[in-house]
Every structure is written in structure tokens, then in C-alpha cells.
Amino acid sequence: MSLLSVEGLGIAFGGVRAVHDVGLTVAPGEIVSIIGPNGAGKTTLFNMISGVYLPGAGRVRLDGEDVTGMAPHLLARRGLSRTFQNLQIFPAMSVLENAATGFHLRERGALLADLLALPGARRRSAEALAGARDLLARVGLDRAADREAGELSYGALKRLEIARALATAPRLLLLDEPAAGCNAVETEEIDRLIAGMAQSGIAILLVEHDMKLVMRISTHIVVLDHGEKIAEGDPATVSRHPDVIAAYLGAPVAVEGAAHADG
Amino acid sequence: MRLSAKWTQLLILFLLIALLPLFFPSGYYFRVGALIFVNGLAVIGIVILTGYAGQISLGHAGFAGIGAYASALAPGHLGLHPLLAVVLGALVSAAVAWLVGRPILRLKGYYLAVASLGFGILVAMVLSNERALTGGPDGMPVPDPGLRDLLKDLGLKLTGGEFWYWCCGLCLLIGAWAALNLQASPTGRALRALHGSEVAARTVGIDVARLKLQAFTISAVYASVAGSLLAMQNRFITPDVAGFMHSIEMVTMAVLGGVGSVIGAIFGAVILTLLPQVLTVFADYEQMVLGAVMILVMIFLPEGLIPSLARKLRGRGE
């Protein structure tokens, strides 16, 4: 059974239909990718699923429960976490502390215990930091643990966001362009990371522009254009779909043939 | 063994408080010291609210007013011991902060600044207008907590200035200790996280509204206790303690010294309490020099004195 199920989701901003009637499902261990040109509504769709925007129409269900428009911190308790296309890190905190915030739901306790540094509070904090250290090692950032997050490179911060999201022990993870701005080596690391997360049973919804990455790791692909779903299927099916080729290359394949004929 | 950052800061603070009196040329300096510690305590509250959680309040003197008038009124009207009056003031401040914070902490940036400003003015107005109870703008006397006599019976003779110096110094140390505990705790991390990015804080499960309210309430308690201490050591209080200028002073001290750092903010309280005393040599130009110092610090040390200087020193060390 699918963990996430989205039906007829739509939203309009000032009369402009940003997303219209989009549906999709993600099961545990699956990697479902959303592709489409810039402005197709991919991030908007993410924002609706993760509770940042209130959808104008449609339903979002998590494990059968209707969570449409639910606040993000309540979704996090239900096992939904995400990363951001335009990085959302905590720049003034150390890399380790950034990752440790992901343990918030497990490390939080009585405010008074934290103020007085009671043994319970110190233990919770130490456990979160230890867990964060493990996750930093997993994304290859363990050596940067004590640096201020704002000093890190773009690619490193993308991985830091993944570590932070993983710390919440998500059942469903929304990754918004995790490989954007990463070099070939970093992209390969992220590739392995995502595949590993899916193998551990996390349901993954991915927005990504790197087509090689998408085609390699996706179980299922949903294609958006102008806010609407124009195609979906496994990578092989989607890559042959004429609408996809038109939306992506901006022109039919025939152009390539004509160029060949000329040459 | 290497001391953690927390204990290093507390040790420095302790040594300063304990050793400075050796250099005091007269008893007057104990009074100045006590005033610095009271201001420092209130400013630690601002560090928690603004430095950690990134929220601004221009009405925190309102809570200092609640604390001060609890110390002035509760012993006579409710028969409470003056020390319990401090606790009562802190509890009332916490309750008021909780109620006021719920609606206004939904606001951001300058909207929040103006709303909190309104709260502070409201408290000052109530204190000025309830003449029957508070004596109005002329102020009212505050009963002595009697602790000094207790110490005298135990054989420890202190002047009023000395007593309040050590008493406020101890309160400042406890306040700094709690604030530093908070900073490194799960709650402190969550507060600093929502300061960095509210949307990201939410996605890791942080209840942003609740945490802002907690920070606001804690900082109100700091201001309230500072107000109580001020009232008790002056033995007299006027509504100015809740006034707009006092709120601004708190924020200015914190920002000047370094709002993200407990030690920095206390240092800001030291500077802004001492400078006016030192600058009297400039006579008519005192305010102008004070203003110029503040402008220059903000231009050249934008994170505040202590954090900016620490960063510069670290940068040179690497």
C-alpha cells in the first residue's frame, strides 16, 4: 500500500494556475521523481504536500490519514521531512548542531530541565549530537562537523540538509533538487545516498533536473508542464513519451533528424 | 582538563565579580556595580529572546515594571516576604508574557517591535495612572527584604552598597548559567534553528509558535527579576522602570555587546551603564559622544563588541 497518496492537488496564485489536478502515490522504498521544465510547478507541489502552502484543491493522504494543509511540524511527527531547493540551513549554528536539530522530536523535553542542565536534558542532547555525528559521516561531512554551517560550499550544504532530514527518521522524504550545484563526484555520492535511503524503506519523492540521475534511480516518474501532469511511468516509458520530449527539448525529435540530413 | 566554553565564560564572569571590588576606590562603586549586574540580568533575557530566537521586543521594561511593583506592593498589601514578592512578580510576568506573546509573536520584524512597544507603554501607563495603589508618576517606597540584617546577625557586616553588589552579582551568575545551559540544550538549538530558518525548523518538527512563546516568557522572567532587584536596592520606584527608554536601553545594551552572546550582552550592559558616568567629563556633549560610540561600534563591529572582536582574533589565529 502507498504511504503517500495525492489526489487532484491544485493551487492558484492571483488567478494563475500554478498546479492543477495533480495526483501521485509513493510506496515505502520507492523513488518517485517529478520532472518538468522550470516553472512547471514542481516546488509548488512539494510545498503543498509538505504543508508550507495550503492547497486550493485536492487531498494529501499520509498512511491513509488526511493531512491536507497540516502544519509542517505536525507532518514531521507523522514521518514526513524534506529538503529545500534554495537551501534552508541554520547558518549561525555549527554543522553538527544543524544536523542535531533533526533529532528535535526525540531530544526535546521539559524546558526547565534544559535551563537547569539536569542530567536528563544533558543525556538527550548528547544522544542527539552523537546521532548527528553518525549522520554527518554518512553524508561525508564528519570532518566539517564543528565548522559554522554558513561557511560550507553549496554542495556540502545540500548534503547537510539531507543529513538533517534523515535525523527526523522520516518514512517519507521530499528531496528538492538535491544534486543542483553539485559536481560529478558529489552527484554520484548523492545518487548512492538516495538509493541507500530507499533501500532502508524510506519512501522518496524527488525533484531533480539532472536527467541521468533521475533515469538511473527512479522507480516511477511524473512529468509536469505548466502545472499539469502530462505523463508518468517508469523511466524507459517516460523518456520515449512524445509530450515529454517536446516539453523538455522544446522541439520535436525531427529537428535532430533534419540536422543530420543537412550534414 | 580543558574547560568547556560555558564554564570558561562563567569563570571569567565570576572572577570579574569577585575581584573587581579590590580596586574600588570608594563605596560608591558597589552601587554602580550592582546597577550593572541588574542591567546585565535583564539583558540576558534579551539574549534569549533576540540572540537565540531572533524575536524583537521593545516593551520588555514592562516586565521589569511588573517585577519592580510586585516588590513594592506585595509585602504591604499581601503580607508576602519581599523575596516571595520577587517570585510572585516573576510568575505574574511569565503569565502576562504568555498571554501577550500568543497574539503578538505571530507578527514578525518591525510589526512585532511595534506591538511589543505598545505592551510596554501600556504597563507604564497603568503604573502611572493607578495613583491609589502605585503613587502615580511620583513613585512609591519599596520595603527592604531584611537580608542584610540577617547577615549582620550571622556576623557578616555589609554596607547597603556591598550587600546589593554581591546579591545582584550572584543573581547575574545564576542567570548567565541558566542562559548558557539553555543555549547548548535541545530547546536552545530549536530556538536558534527557528532564528535561522522558520520553514526549515518546522520541517524537523519544531513547533515554532510554542518555542517563540517559551523564549518570550523566559526573557520576561529575567526582566521581572531585574526589576525587582532594582526596586529593592533603590528602596524606591517610579513608573520609569517600565518606560519606553528602559526597554530601548535593554535592547541597545544587548546589541552593542553582542546579542548572540551572554558574555557579550553583559559587557554591553557594563559599557552603557559606565559610559554615562565616565562621559560626564564631556559635560554638555555627553549624549553626543555616547551616540557616536554606539554608531561606530555598529558600523565596525556589527555583531556587537564581544562576538566581532572574538571573530577577528580567531581570524588572525588561523
TrEMBL record, chain A:
| UniProt-listed Gene3D superfamilies | P-loop containing nucleotide triphosphate hydrolases (3.40.50.300)
Keyword list, A-Z: ATP-binding, Nucleotide-binding, Transport
Fetch the CDD domains from UniProt: ABC_Mj1267_LivG_branched
- Its GO CC terms? plasma membrane
Q: Which GO terms describe its biological process?
A: D-alanine transmembrane transport; L-alanine transport; L-isoleucine import across plasma membrane; L-valine import across plasma membrane
GO terms, molecular function: ATP binding; ATP hydrolysis activity; L-isoleucine transmembrane transporter activity; L-phenylalanine transmembrane transporter activity; L-valine transmembrane transporter activity
Q: Locate the ABC transporter domain: which residues?
A: 4-251
Q: What is this protein called?
A: Amino acid/amide ABC transporter ATP-binding protein 1 (HAAT family)
Q: What is the lineage of its organism?
A: Bacteria, Pseudomonadati, Pseudomonadota, Alphaproteobacteria, Rhodobacterales
TrEMBL record, chain B:
Concerning Pfam families, the annotation shows: BPD_transp_2
Chief location category: membrane
Q: Which UniProt keywords apply?
A: Cell membrane, Membrane, Transmembrane, Transmembrane helix
Where in or outside the cell it occurs: the entry states:
Cell membrane
State the membrane topology.
Multi-pass membrane protein
Entry keyword DNA-binding: no
Q: Which organism is it from?
A: Rhodovulum kholense
Question: Which Gene Ontology molecular-function terms are recorded?
Answer: branched-chain amino acid transmembrane transporter activity
Which branch of life, at top level? Bacteria
Whether Lipid metabolism counts among this entry's keywords is no
The protein's name: Amino acid/amide ABC transporter membrane protein 2 (HAAT family)
GO CC terms of this entry: plasma membrane
Question: Per its UniProt record, what CDD domains does this chain match?
Answer: TM_PBP1_LivM_like
Which ranges form a coiled coil?
A: none
Q: Membrane-spanning residues where?
A: 7-24, 30-49, 80-100, 109-127, 163-182, 254-275, 287-306
Q: Name the InterPro entries for this protein.
A: ABC_transp_permease (IPR001851), LivM-like (IPR043428)
